[in-house]
Amino acid sequence: MTRTIHLTLDINGQRHELDVEPRVTLLDALREHLGLTGTKKGCDQGQCGACTCHVDGKRVLSCLTLAAQAEGRQVTTIEGLAGPNGELHPVQSAFIEHDAFQCGYCTPGQIMSAVACIREGHAGSDEEIREYMSGNLCRCGAYNSIVTAVREAAEMA
Amino acid sequence: MKDFSYLRAASAEEASRAAQQAGAMLLAGGTTLLDLAKCGVTEPDTVVDITRLAGLDTINVGEGGLTIGALATMSAVADHPEVKTQFPAIAQSLSLAASAQLRNMATIGGNLLQRTRCAYFRDPQAFPACNKRAPGSGCSALGGVTRNHAVLGTSEKCIATYPGDLAVALVAFDAVVDLGTRQVPVDDFFLPYGEAPERETLLQPGEIIRGITVPASVAARQSVYLKVRDRQSYEFAAASAAVGLELEADGRTVSDIHVALGGVATKPWRALAVEQALIGKALDADLVRSASRLSMEGAVSHGDNAYKIELAPRVVARAILQLAPSLGDLA
Predict the structure, then answer these.
(1) Is the interface score ipTM higher than 0.95?
(2) How many Å lie between the alpha carbon of B225 and the closest alpha carbon of chain A?
(3) Within a domain: residue A43?
């Protein structure tokens, strides 16, 4: 008894139409239905932050958001962060500059979280960055470089 | 996750009607509902999305106190300038909870209704016995690993800890839940486990939390939420305390005090015995420490969680002493 619902989603400024089961999360809609695989699935239970994206400019976990909840909202994923000609977002550049990753799997979530963290005004000190980035786990343990990258991007913002 | 049908409610009345149907559950922030649906703990037939209901996300600080709409997010309340200055324990209880992403999603109404983190409750496949999930099936936590389980308010049927922080601060400051047709003190809203651990709140089918009010008081303005946990951030409390303190002009005599505990009980736990032992008394560190021990009256250890009986009174004492700077460095 698969009942699908029709959704119109605004992702990175583009309209997408899709038919999905109501239980489909925003994360699965992005990755499996729309081919936007930059957003990563880590724990799929709201504990790791790998799936972080922005809904109406606020960072949220796409694994605990139904795709249906995102209808009528503006969704931004890691694919939507760079400028129109591909120029990197300052936080992306800072992550490269400071080698703020090892395996890279948590990186899209870290960067989406960091962009919001800076915009919220929660990147005033290393301590504050650590506190407000605590929802993004990095199993490689690149935390020191992540904090440095976020701090530098915040200082330039 | 089992599939369900999805209804986006256009009015509170429509949501209430839909929520009365068997198998229907309300969706606000979704952070608990979808998490538990993925664990197989909740299996809704219909998910009723109430996030588009208008007018339920307001935050007001007035002379009478604080009013928060049920759909206000945790982050909106935690970052609200007047909540931070007039009700610091409430703002702190929220900013010390979850992560920035979850606080942007989770709502105040949903926050009250978050379910226990008991690992046995959350894993129905490995642990079918759980009186909270399946009344009468037994308790897998008893005799198991109980480091995070409650020492207060437990019964032979359930020892699961109430995990939230906000409700602890709300209970301390006599907050009231607005259910539309009735107003219930938060302390009464959460039921003691006793014989029916599956029933956690007074909420009836179809009832929707509309908001919360917290009366203004000097103690609420001079308050703190102290949370001790296994890691520094993004973790549930091993023990926490919401404390508000009003002192006489001498800077030592207690004219009003509010104390509640988190992380140690089956519901947000008001510590009236501590308050009664200190009201009207001139504070000193020894008195604060001995009074704080009264918070553990009736506490029962289950082995691994015995440390909480030692830890929680120290957290209470430290919170009280933090609010009484005239006592110097005694904390």
Answers:
(1) yes
(2) 17
(3) yes
